[in-house]
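Technical note accompanying the year-one report. For the benefit of new consortium partners, we illustrate the data format agreed upon in the data management plan: each record pairs a sequence with a structure-token string. No post-processing was applied to the example shown here.
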Amino acid sequence: MSGRCRTCGCPVVWARSADGGRAVALNPIPDPHGRVLLEAGRARPATSEELQRPHGWRYTIHEDTCPRCVGAPAPSADSQQTARRSA
């Protein structure tokens, strides 16, 4: 599902992690140096073997490249509860 980063507003592709279903924002353009593969809407890390082969559909986690996201503190539980109350 495509959308926008809440921090910087850049386009992202939202996927669910294969291991736990957590929402993951990916850069929308495939990256030959990306470390994430999308399979049936699930994001999973590429294996070391897969990283050695050229692959046209690897992606980069948006947070790893976004200048506003890199180093930004994660929202605290208090701020999340406040946001829920005000919504």
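Partners are asked to follow this layout when depositing records. The chain has two helices and six strands.
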